[in-house]
Here is the input.
Amino acid sequence: MADTATVRPLRSGEVTSWDLQADVVVVGYGIAGVCAAIEAANTGADVLVLERTGGWGGAAALSGGFIYLGGGTALQRKLGFEDTPEHMEAFLTAALGPGVDKAKIHDYCQGSVEHFDWLVANGVPFKEEFWGEPGYEPPADQGLMYSGGENSAPFNATIPPAPRGHLPQMTEKKLGEKGGGYMLMKPLVEQAEQLGVRKEYDVRLQRLVVDENDRVVGVVAKRYGKEVLVRAERGVVLATGSFAYNHQMVEQYAPKIYGRPAATVEEHDGIGIRVAQALGADVAHMDATEVALVADPQVVVRGILVNGRGQRFITEDTYPGRMGQAVLQDQENKAYLIIDEQAIEAAFETISSMSMLRIAPTWVAETVEELESDMGLPADTLKATIDLYNKHAENGEDPFLHKKPEWVKPIGSPLGAYDLRGYTGGFTLGGLRTDLDSRVLHVSGEPIAGLYAAGRVSSGICAGGYASGCSLGDGSFFGRRAGVSAAKGN
Here is the structure.
């Protein structure tokens, strides 16, 4: 990076006095940071959280709030769904790859039930209600839904599906402003404060401090332009978020989402990754991204998605994030939704958290040939696709992409097409390589003494694919590990 010199570590011998001091210093007060703080405080450690903004929450508080959990949580059982850690592990291994950290996924799945119980014990509420409709999230305060395509092809053919999107209950929710993520963070922050966790706001990380043995013993930060030196007696936990808003890093590591709206917060500028890299920290899956298709799933599921050649390429009843990744990564960011008038009317009558996206189609026509021409597709390409789809849809079948029969209906006329070219935006999934104890690993493979990380600053359970709830899930789970490890000074 062009500014490498600014993130190089400071030697502790050059520090004449410390402005702040704690046993464990946590940098970032989002989901990974708050969970690290709670667990470190539970060991009896004195914990200080440094947050660059004026308050707690980060991207987690602005998110929908899904936590990907399973294996037979109390909420799953209460709502009549059977699940096992093994089925959860099989799905995540298949859906989040290729190249997933199998040890992390195994650990996460085996500990999922306990983690759900821990969240509940720390005040996070979950309503005992299932939402079974297509969507990015429930329209109200339902506590459980499918959030990764578990009940769709190709996964449902070989892995028993179970809903694992656990959503904290939130009244008067407002998408993107105050949703389930707020009700995930609020009780956890309150618990941290009850445990005596201290916090300092408007403090921006600059670089790490290391002793003569290269152990991390503190951080250099700035508050309103003034340098702040913070001593960590046992360890530093980085919980600073992704690099989605560092345009230089995105262009270098994840160029396919360069210049696209990032579904995160501007504070995710990669500083935690860069200060650790300056110590020789290893990184993993820096090219991995989640990509959202900006369309209402209730509308999409009732039509067919086609690419720039007028061909279907993914089942329309799967997780919308899988659709977005397929469009951006495999279809040159070109996609259209083909749907008839009857299906649009049926979709618009449903309840959806994404109803603000319900607009008229880009093109409308009385015949497929007319629509095909208006869209600028090669003659007969779209017609061939619709004819073949309709032939099997008459019997409620989709033998090619295996959309569930309840959504398979012939496309009639009049019909229209939504232009979804460029309607994708996402965030980065790669970051610092960590072990199961959330220790940051050097490129040599050895842990960097005194340094820990969790959340999107690290490479978690995702390597390429995604399911809603994985970021808050592994961020909270391995955030807890980071807090324990830092408190012990391992």
About this structure: The first strand starts at residue 10 and ends at 11. Residues 470-488 form the longest helix (19 residues).
